[in-house]
Amino acid sequence: MATFSTLAYFPITIRFSWNRASYDPNKKSLSYIKINGTSAKSTTKLDMASALTSVAYISEQQVRQNIPTTKQFVDHYRQGMIIEGGVGYRQRVVIRSYEVGPDKTVTLESILNLLQETALNHVWMSGLLSDGFGATHGMMKHDLIWVVSRMQVEVDHYPIWGEVLEIDTWVGASGKNGMRRDWLIRSEATGHVFASATSTWVMMNRTTRRLSKMPEEVRAEIAPWFIEKQAITEDVLEKIVKLDNKAKYMNKDLKPKRSDLDMNQHVNNVKYVRWMLETIPDQILEAHQLTSIILEYRRECGSSDIVQSLCQPDEDGILKDGLKQDKETSLVNGFSLAAEILEGNGFLASFGNQKLRYTHLLKIDGESQNDEIVRGRTTWKKKSFSP
Amino acid sequence: MATFSTLAYFPITIRFSWNRASYDPNKKSLSYIKINGTSAKSTTKLDMASALTSVAYISEQQVRQNIPTTKQFVDHYRQGMIIEGGVGYRQRVVIRSYEVGPDKTVTLESILNLLQETALNHVWMSGLLSDGFGATHGMMKHDLIWVVSRMQVEVDHYPIWGEVLEIDTWVGASGKNGMRRDWLIRSEATGHVFASATSTWVMMNRTTRRLSKMPEEVRAEIAPWFIEKQAITEDVLEKIVKLDNKAKYMNKDLKPKRSDLDMNQHVNNVKYVRWMLETIPDQILEAHQLTSIILEYRRECGSSDIVQSLCQPDEDGILKDGLKQDKETSLVNGFSLAAEILEGNGFLASFGNQKLRYTHLLKIDGESQNDEIVRGRTTWKKKSFSP
Asked: Which segment of the chain is annotated as a signal peptide (chains A, B) (predicted)?
């Protein structure tokens, strides 16, 4: 017991040494400077200097990032480990003070950030991560990047400030050229599933910006990681209609700020969601909690694009989902079932399980064709007292 | 060695058990429902129900947050530990993918978030954290909250995506009624100090919103944690002037969004900084890196306030700081030393160490008195190639 306590008290030193030994091949490469594709003899002084600077820069970055070149099974720094017989990834996270909203529950944006983070750390552990944003070595060679085409997140229960979570993530095949990535977010203490998510990814040529087939070389890298398990069992995918300018809510002239751009120089996914949700009136946001969001991505949004966010409450959604059982009662009582009227109505609210649904569209302002950035659908339930 | 490796491979299970045993007093309280300050006999059914709901809610939250009621020395979940002879706190963090900007270096906003997070985790470890935003049990009893009056962050080097950091934080006395909190951010691998920060905090009555003396009860709680060490040695504090509407840059009609509010229902500090920095033209932000920011807080900003952000380049700053040595040369050559002209000037840029300085003001729109939210000063240096 004494030895055990001592180990528990000095975890950082112990793990530090252990980590160093196991996955720090880059450390050694600092003194070894290789100039890629450059013959030292034929370079001018200036070329030589810039090549050296460039290589030194990459080496320093490699050392500081410490990206492994072979598969790792445990990462103490990120509190991550390989699961699912060697192909899935689990990471433990604590909800931080700035990841929660005024009600102390984690924001949807923080959830999306954590999904991105664990996905990238999964690739990190695989030994396949090149310098790109989740791209493998094979993808780098073919000048390919990942782009997300669909994302769905279901939230049953919002974690609170200080709560400890386990996030599992894994990948699977999606058709011939795509990849599915799923996640499960659980309470570390009880194992209760708080949220689940699924997404579909395809490859795009970084230069031409056209979608690409999956090269055999890349398939060989990632297919061994594919498993069949699905976090969300998809029924037939329901079509999300394209909204037009008759949509009930609209925010115009949205301009990406420098701080909204990610490592790919694109407007971050999280910013999309913020723009979408901000069209919904505050009093609805305050009284409701998002339970589901589906995003269908259509095109990239760059730093100079001006964006419109459209939003339409979905009256059908109310009828079909939450009030399926209560339809007759409501009609008998002569209530309009429009989402806006339901909101705050004591009688109907007492049914407790009615849901609001919204259809969303983000589009580039001023373009008539190919103007859609992302279509979305959100579902909301009335907030209960407990977070 | 064999035992050692085994422990290293299964850290989560081991630490989980260890943690549970040491600081989970709340877990036991789930079945014990106590109604604070309510006589069960005199309550109506409704009162009773709401009291029970309220207590059940608090208990559930306590269990999920697991805030310790006695001092802890190690927190494996947050990778934190008590240092400095029992009064300081150190936490290891890995820079996450969404905490960096387009250049893969951590954003100032993420740094500020991490400072807040480690400060709160320090209080968490102390066993003094009540349910508030860093408030102690004594502060809760006196209905007091912390408000920050001054914050200064110096960044020498920006960590990059995936880099492992150690953040140290500790507190000291500031006058009779205030508290100083300092931080050091270091590379975990090399020990190199990347950033340092200091801040001053005072207490405010939550109801009256007036500043308060530090009650003896609170002093008794926190004074044992005070140490003298300072992360930034302050010279005489330079006054930050109040800008007026003649300021060169101005962003008007800034409205806090729901997602900008923190647990205290106030506009988050990080949002203030974003508003400040967004007044600086993009081409300057792209070519420069912030090396220092000072914030002087004057009043709270609520969710319904409309905010103006003013910004003035500081010509004196250039003369006094970066170009102290080059002043004569520059004047001889007839160059204007205005910050805007220096920017992008090949000749002067070759001096390499010139700095830009800006004075900032966030104010409530439409109020003539007591309209200042925060005054600021930022200092910037030219970006080098390497992050």
From this structure: none
